[in-house]
Specification:
Strand order of the largest sheet: 3-4-7-5-6
Shape: globular
Largest sheet: 5 strands, mixed
CATH topology of the largest domain: H-NOX domain
Length: 357
């Protein structure tokens, strides 16, 4: 029944240079999944036929899989393989070339920091359903993954695969492990969580956000094959893809990714506008067109950071307030009550999650 509802034709995937109207993933993800499930003797035809796809439908590298199709394909892979933790294996076997021109840009980058900046700016060429942003809090750097689509029953597969892939690709491109890496998931602990230990990270579930945290000094780890000229060429192709698919209009996601400063704290409206090479007036007008405002996006970022920092028993409320840019605890408490209807101390004591609307 699910397969019948989600059946799509090759024509629906072959988007070419038509502007993207719905969330989706680069079709290369399906090709990657075909390779992953071979370890369980699942054939490409068996995997694809259940959702009405053929290998010919995956031939155009510019095509995108709509979210319902991708969810159905992942669930079929889980069913046929008999492996509930299949997201782990998708992540472990991920490689930069999976991400098209962005992948080539990442391979040619000079450091992890530069690669992250490329991912923040051009990630929507791979998918508009997820985005990443960098946050640095003193000695800890975090790559936060935001969801922009409903992944339904495959949500655990997609999120686990994404965080594991981020670590795996960094390891591939630097030749070194990300030291003290920790994966936080805003997911309930799955029944198969015991299988996930092989990913080499400490895993935490039921967290406020999805994030991969690691030693901030790793941001400046050099990549194995930096090539400035190749990176610039690949970056230019990424920009062309943004233009061709009409993705430059995703201003809300881009602003959200830039609000958190890599040096700590939050960027101002003026700083974000400068990053986007726009005037503050133009940026405010674009956000308003999408029903958003800079102050609301910044407030959401502060709220999210507060929830994460409150989980650390080593930080006092005063220290958290200062990290968030508040001059005193009173102002921080007033803002926190506005976000959650409770105080920071009470939230920390009870572990309240009611605020996560």
């Amino acid at each position: 029944m699910l397969a019948q509802l989600l059946r799509v034709s090759q024509n629906s995937l072959n988007l070419g240079h038509v502007a993207v109207k719905q969330h989706g993933f680069r079709v290369g993800h399906a090709t990657h999944l075909i390779e992953v499930v071979k370890r369980w003797q699942v054939s490409a035809d068996d995997l694809l036929s259940g959702v009405g796809l053929s290998q010919e439908a995956l031939a155009d590298p510019r095509a995108r899989l709509p979210i319902p199709t991708w969810v159905a394909l992942l669930e079929r892979a889980r069913l046929l393989s008999g492996e509930p933790a299949i997201g782990l294996y998708i992540g472990l076997h991920s490689r930069p070339t999976l991400y098209g021109y962005l992948g080539f840009a990442l391979m040619s980058a000079s450091t992890i920091r530069e690669a992250i900046e490329l991912s923040v700016r051009y990630g929507s060429t791979v998918t508009t359903a997820l985005s990443v942003r960098l946050r640095v809090e003193k000695r800890v750097a975090s790559l936060i993954v935001d969801e922009h689509a409903d992944f339904g029953s495959a949500r655990d597969i997609i999120i686990i695969a994404t965080l594991v892939a981020l670590r795996q690709i960094s390891k591939t491109l630097t030749g070194r492990e990300l030291s003290t890496s920790v994966a936080d998931f805003a997911l309930p602990r799955p029944d198969y969580s015991g299988k996930l230990g092989v990913c080499g990270m400490r895993l935490n579930f039921d967290q406020p956000v999805h994030r991969l945290s690691f030693d901030a000094r790793s941001l400046d780890l050099p990549y194995i094959m930096p090539d400035r000229a190749s990176m610039l060429l690949a970056r230019d192709q990424c920009q062309r893809e943004l233009d061709a698919f009409g993705l430059n209009g995703r201003v809300v996601e881009r602003v959200r990714g830039l609000i958190s400063s890599p040096q700590g704290g939050c960027r101002s409206l003026e700083e974000v506008a400068a990053e986007l090479h726009q005037s503050t007036r133009t940026l405010k007008r674009q956000l308003a067109t999408h029903g958003a405002s800079f102050s609301t996006l910044r407030d959401n970022e502060l709220r999210e950071r507060a929830l994460v920092l409150l989980r650390s028993s080593e930080l006092t409320l005063t220290e958290i307030a200062l990290r968030l840019g508040y001059s005193n605890v009173t102002n921080f408490e007033r803002a926190f009550r506005r976000w959650t209807t409770t105080s920071p101390a009470e939230w920390r004591r009870t572990g309240d999650r009611v605020d996560r609307a």
